[in-house]
Write a structure and sequence with these properties.
The complex is a heterodimer of chains A (314) and B (311). By secondary structure, chain A is mostly helical. Chain A folds into 2 domains: 57 residues, no CATH class; 234 residues, MetI-like (MetI-like fold), CATH 1.10.3720.10. Chain A contains 13 helices and 2 strands; from the N terminus they run ββααααααααααααα. In chain A, helix 3 runs antiparallel to helix 10, helix 5 packs across helix 7 and helix 8 runs antiparallel to helix 9. The longest helix of chain A has 37 residues. With 311 residues, chain B is an all-alpha fold. Chain B folds into 2 domains: 47 residues, no CATH class; 215 residues, MetI-like fold (Orthogonal Bundle), CATH 1.10.3720. Helix content of chain B is 67%, strand content 0%. Chain B has 16 helices and no strands. The radius of gyration of chain B is 24 Å and the shape is globular. The N terminus and C terminus of chain B are likely disordered. The chains are: A mainly alpha (314), B mainly alpha (311). At the A-B interface, strand 1, helix 1, helix 3, helix 4 and helix 5 of A face helix 1, helix 3, helix 6, helix 7 and helix 8 of B.
Chain lengths: 314, 311
C-alpha cells in the first residue's frame, strides 16, 4: 500500500507509470495518503450516506412491516412471499421487461444510425442537423411525456388527425395498452437518441481511417466495412450504450408519469412506479422495499450478464 | 433522458477525451448511396443528405407541433381541421401559465437547486476524479469500484429508504434535501478522472520538485487545466438537475418549494388537463436550458472538445 508510484493501472491508454523516487520516503508516503483522502473525502461521505445507508436500510425494511412511522417489526420473509404471489408485481416487472427489450434496441439503432450519417462527409449541413436532433436532450422527461401525449392524443392529437385525413381510422393511442406502450417507446427513443448519438459520434471518429481504406482495397463493400471494421471498432461504446440504456429503461418513471400515468388502468405501470405507489401512496414501506431489493438484484444480474458477455466477446 | 447521471468510465472517457478534430473523409454504413470512387466520397451525396434531413425533420416534428400549438388560443387547440401554423397567434397560454401557476417561485426554486448543485458537483467531481487518476492506493482503487457500483445500482429504485435517510437528516421538505444527495455523480467523477489520466505525470513531478504541496498542485495547476471538462460537466449537471423529477417529488411536500418538473406534473396529472396552460408552462420551463445550451453548445456537441488539451 501507498507505494509512492503514480500508477495508471486502471487505464491502459494512459502514459506509462513513472515511479517517484523520494528522499524522505515516510513523509512522502503520508502526503500521498492524506492528500487524496482530503480530495475524495466529501464524496466518500456522500457515498456512505446516500448509497450505502439507504441500501442497508432498504434491506432491513424489506424484512419488516414498517409503514413509515413507529417501530420496526420484523416479519421475516413474509414480504417476499407476498411479493412473489402478487400479480400486480409480476405485471409491473413483466411490462418493464417488455418496455426495456423493445426500447433499448430502438434507441441503439436510432443513435448509431444518426451518428453514422452525421460523421459522413457526404452529408451537407451536418452541424445544423446535429443540433436539431440533439434538441430533445434539453427536454425533461416530464415535458417529453407532455409533448408526446399532445402529439398522440386520442381525440385531439396530430397523429390521429393525419391518419383520419388520409382516410384511416384513428387509433386508440391511450385506451389500448399496447398502443400506449408503443407511444412510450417512441418517446423514449426520441428523447434518448441525442446523448447516445454523441457517444457514437466520438467513437466513430476514433476508428482509424486506414483500416477502412485497407478493407475497401480488399474489396469490401460499404456494408461489409461497417459490419467488420466499424462495428467491432465501436464495440466498447456499443456495450456502454446498451448497458446504460437498459438500466435507464428499467428505472423509467418520470416520462411515463406524464405520458400515460401508467395507464390505461394499471396496464403500463412499470416497476419503479409500482414501488412508488406501494411505498408512498399506500405507505407499505416494508413491502415496497422488498420490491426494491428484488429490482436491485435484477439490475445487478443484468449488469453482470452484460459485463460477462462483453468480456467474452472482447 | 439517457443522460444517465451515472456513466461508467468507458463512456465518460469518450465524452472526456473524444476523438481528434481533423479527420479524413469517412464513409457511412449506407452502402447503396455510397459512391465507390474515393474522389467522389468527400463530395456531397444527395440521397444521404436528404435522408439525414428527413430524419432531422422527424425529430423536430413533435417539438415543432408542440411549440406552435402553444401559440394557439385555447379555442383553436382542438378545432378540426388542425393546422400546423396557428391561425391566430396569441401569448395568452404563457400569460395564464405564468399567473395561474406560481411560476416565478418554481423558477427560483429550480434555478437555486440547479446552480448550487452544479457548482458543488463540478468541484467535488474534480477533486475526486483527480485523486482517482493521480494517486493509486488501495483506498482510491476501492472508491473507484464503489462509484462504479452506483452506476449499476441506482438509488432511484430504493425510494423509501432514501426518503427515510433524507428525513432523518432533517432535510425533508427543503431544497437542501434535493441538493445534497445529488452532488455525487459517477459521470462527473469519471469524466474528470479520465481527463486527469491524460495529463502527463511529468507536470506533477516537476511541481513536486519545485516544492509545491499536493493540494496546491491540484488547485493551482490541475484544476485550471481541466476547464473544458469543467464546462462540459457544468452543463450536464445543470441539465440533470433542472430536469430532475423523482427526488423533488419525494423530498418536497410544501408547494412553495416545488420545482418546475413537479409543478408541471401536477398540471398534467390533473383529472381534466388544462392544455393551454400546460403547453405554455412546459414551453416556459424549457427556455432557460435552451438558452444555456445555445451559449455553451460547443462544450456539449463537440464531445471531443478536450482533444486539443493534450498538447
Amino acid at each position: 500500500m501507498a507505494q509512492p508510484t503514480i500508477s495508471t493501472a486502471a487505464a491502459p491508454e494512459a502514459p506509462a507509470p513513472q515511479p517517484v523516487r523520494s528522499k524522505t520516503a515516510q513523509k512522502r508516503r503520508n502526503r500521498y495518503i492524506i492528500a487524496p483522502l482530503v480530495l475524495i473525502g466529501v464524496n466518500v461521505v456522500l457515498f456512505l450516506v446516500f448509497f450505502v445507508w439507504p441500501g442497508a436500510l432498504g434491506l432491513l425494511y424489506s424484512f419488516t412491516d414498517y409503514r413509515g412511522i413507529g417501530k420496526l417489526h420484523f416479519i421475516g420473509l413474509v414480504n417476499f412471499q407476498k411479493l412473489f404471489a402478487d400479480a400486480g408485481f409480476y405485471a409491473a416487472l413483466g411490462r418493464t421487461f417488455t418496455y426495456t427489450v423493445l426500447s433499448v434496441p430502438l434507441v441503439y439503432v436510432c443513435s448509431l444510425g444518426v451518428a453514422a450519417l452525421l460523421v459522413s462527409k457526404a452529408v451537407r449541413g451536418r452541424t445544423a442537423a446535429k443540433m436539431v436532433i440533439f434538441l430533445p436532450w434539453l427536454i425533461s422527461p416530464i415535458v417529453v411525456g407532455v409533448i408526446w401525449k399532445w402529439l398522440f392524443g386520442q381525440d385531439f392529437g396530430f397523429i390521429n388527425f393525419v391518419i383520419s385525413t388520409v382516410g384511416g381510422n384513428p387509433l386508440p393511442w391511450s385506451s389500448d395498452g399496447n398502443l400506449a406502450l408503443a407511444v412510450v417507446i417512441f418517446a423514449s427513443a426520441w428523447g434518448g437518441t441525442a446523448f447516445n448519438m454523441l457517444l457514437f459520434i466520438a467513437a466513430l471518429k476514433n476508428i482509424p481511417e486506414s483500416l477502412l481504406e485497407a478493407a475497401e482495397l480488399d474489396g469490401a463493400n460499404a456494408w461489409q466495412r461497417f459490419r467488420h471494421v466499424t462495428l467491432p471498432g465501436i464495440a466498447p461504446t456499443s456495450f456502454m450504450v446498451i448497458l446504460l440504456s437498459t438500466i435507464h429503461a428499467m428505472k423509467e418513471f418520470a416520462m411515463i408519469q406524464a405520458l400515460t400515468g401508467g395507464g390505461p388502468g394499471t396496464q403500463n405501470t412499470l416497476i419503479v412506479q409500482y414501488i412508488y405507489k406501494t411505498g408512498f401512496e399506500q405507505s407499505k414501506v416494508g413491502y415496497a422495499s422488498a420490491a426494491s431489493m428484488v429490482l436491485m438484484v435484477v439490475l445487478l444480474a443484468i449488469a453482470l450478464i452484460q459485463l460477462r458477455f462483453n468480456r467474452k466477446k472482447g | 433522458m439517457a443522460t444517465a447521471a451515472n456513466m461508467p468510465p468507458a463512456v465518460a472517457e469518450e465524452t472526456a477525451t473524444g476523438g481528434e478534430r481533423t479527420r479524413a473523409p469517412r464513409r457511412t454504413r449506407n452502402g447503396r448511396n455510397q459512391p465507390g470512387n474515393r474522389e467522389l466520397r468527400a463530395k456531397a451525396s444527395i440521397p444521404l443528405t436528404v435522408l439525414t434531413w428527413l430524419i432531422a425533420a422527424l425529430y423536430a416534428l413533435p417539438l415543432l407541433w408542440f411549440l406552435l400549438s402553444s401559440f394557439k388560443p385555447g379555442s383553436e387547440l382542438f378545432s378540426y381541421p388542425l393546422s400546423m401554423i396557428p391561425r391566430e397567434w396569441t401569448f395568452q397560454g404563457f400569460v395564464d401559465a405564468w399567473e395561474r401557476v406560481d411560476f416565478a417561485r418554481y423558477f427560483l426554486n429550480t434555478a437555486t437547486v440547479s446552480i448550487v448543485t452544479t457548482a458543488l458537483t463540478v468541484f467535488f467531481s474534480a477533486c475526486t476524479g483527480y485523486a482517482l487518476a493521480k494517486y493509486n492506493n488501495k483506498g482510491t482503487r476501492l472508491f473507484f469500484v464503489c462509484i462504479l457500483a452506483t452506476t449499476m445500482l441506482p438509488t432511484e429504485v430504493i425510494l423509501n429508504p432514501t426518503f427515510s435517510v433524507i428525513r432523518d437528516l432533517g432535510l425533508y421538505n427543503s431544497l437542501a434535501g434535493i441538493i445534497v444527495p445529488s452532488v455525487l455523480t459517477a459521470t462527473g467523477v469519471f469524466m474528470f478522472r479520465q481527463f486527469f489520466l491524460t495529463v502527463p505525470d511529468d507536470l506533477l513531478h516537476s511541481a513536486r520538485i519545485d516544492g509545491a504541496g499536493e493540494l496546491a498542485i491540484f488547485f493551482r495547476i490541475m484544476l485550471p487545466l481541466s476547464r473544458p471538462i469543467l464546462f462540459t460537466l457544468a452543463i450536464f449537471s445543470f441539465q440533470w438537475r433542472w430536469n430532475d423529477y423523482i427526488w423533488p417529488l419525494i423530498v418536497l411536500n410544501d408547494p412553495k418549494w416545488y420545482t418546475l418538473q413537479v409543478a408541471l406534473r401536477s398540471i398534467v396529472g390533473a383529472e381534466n388537463i388544462d392544455w393551454p396552460v400546460l403547453l405554455g408552462a412546459s414551453v416556459i420551463s424549457l427556455l432557460p436550458l435552451v438558452l444555456v445550451f445555445f451559449v455553451f453548445q460547443k462544450y456539449v456537441l463537440n464531445a471531443d472538445v478536450s482533444a486539443g488539451l493534450k498538447d
